[in-house]
Structure formats: C-alpha cells, structure tokens
Protein: ArpU family transcriptional regulator
Amino acid sequence: MRAQIQEQLSFLQPVKYLSTSRVKDINVYLELGLTKDQYYESKKDVIAQIAKALGMI
Structure:
C-alpha cells in the first residue's frame, strides 16, 4: 500500500503545493484518490521523516 501511495504522490506538481497560497487537505487527498485516513497516516509519516531529517527528533 505504501508503494501505491508513493506512486500516486509522484505526479504532484510541487509548485502547486509549495506556493504561499493555502491548499486544503481535502483537495490534496481527493486529487490523490486517497481516503481521509490514508492521507492523514501518510502525512503523519512524512512530517516525522522531515523532523528526523532536521534533527528535531
């Protein structure tokens, strides 16, 4: 399942989601075709990975 989610994330346009405008989570997970639970589980994992990479945890 993780590989499927990563594959779905690969087509995202970084500029679209890294701009200064706010993008609601619902728009992201609907565009990715994920359920709300799948999206928030992945988001939690990614935030933890970023924090670890920055030496915060």
